[in-house]
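Homework-ish question, so no full write-ups if that breaks the rules, but can someone show me the predicted structure for this set?
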Amino acid sequence: MKQKLQSKDLITVGIFTAIYFVLQFVSNMLAVLPHPFVFYPLYLPIFVGIPLMLFIAKIQKPGMFSIMSILLGIILFLFGRSWIPLVFCIVFGIVADLILWSGKYKSMKKSIIAAGVFNLWSIGMVLPVWFLGDSYNAALEASMPEGFVSTILALKQPWVMVLLLVGAFVMGVVGALIGKAVVKKHFVKAGIV
Amino acid sequence: MTAQKQSFTLDPRTKLLLLVLFNIAIFSGYESTMTLLLTLMPMLLMALAGERKMALGLAILCFASGILMIWLRPVLYQGIGVLLASILFLFYGLMPVLTMGAYVMTTTSPGEFSAAMLRLHVPRKIIIPFEVLFRFFPTIMEEAHSINMAMRMRGIMLGGKHPGRILEYRLVPLLMSTVKIGDELSAAAMTRCIDAPGAKSSINEIGFHIQDLIATIIGVALLILVITIV
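A: Not a homework solution, just the prediction itself:
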């Protein structure tokens, strides 16, 4: 397993990062309502599970996941997210890469866990409202309907945080299982993986 | 013509810096007239770079939503219009960054971009996927659009016969076609020696000029203005 990333693989990384970003952007459209905004980590994996599992199945080389997460973080930042998702994305991407690496990128069980762990980054999309303070919220308040920020702030409770933490992982795993089934159903048959 | 165009070209690194500055600016505070002012800069730059049509289109879009935002806000936020209005205003809030992003993307060729990244000593492992990433957004949109049309014909849409299958029936063909396009892209890159060892050179001459300095100063000034006002 000393394979290094070839240029071909790097191109594939770019493609999947683009797909992941587009899907997260589309699913994030729902987050203009306060509840979907807070519980974004719980439904994001339903959208991105399939490409994520295809991505893991397709490359299987060290570093690929970290590169994707770094790019994803940068793109998120450039498209107007704060630095928190950027950091979360990179950290959980590297952790997911290590989990994949421990399974030599072949173990399906490790792939599913890695997908679950990686999904924890999306909690970083919620945190700015809770922790970045007034100036960030003033910006949000001005561009959102009345009560948007206050509803989100009202949800800053321990049980919500625990639910997000556990739920993000569990739903990441669920998304990965859906992804796995779909990849098996369509892509293995078609010879793409 | 080319000489005139050249003189208004900013270095890709300056463009990226402006993008980051704008990003910080919209986080530092928000005020609807300030947003209009910020949006003006990328539009001007775009017009100077020769993208007059696009600048005009964006200007109309931005000022129309600005007017809606500033004066019609209380009216719009009543009843069922909330969701639509929220999406519109979300985009309005991000307008400075989005227009700046549009400016960077329309006026920077992939070659210039990679030349700039090479100068910044970004590792190849980041540069290649990054270029592919930007090249792929339009492709994904195009493919998604045609798949959407095909699936509509089969009744797979919201409110259609099989709403539950939307995701699978859209994503799978999309992934299939993009992966295939990606394979073709890497084959094309291989024939152009993307794997050649040694330092790469570029035919794109990039470098800082007086306009880069001016643009940076204006960008920083706008950022300071936003921070002090809000």
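Now go work out the reasoning yourself. Hint: Chain A touches chain B through 53 residues (CB under 8 Å).
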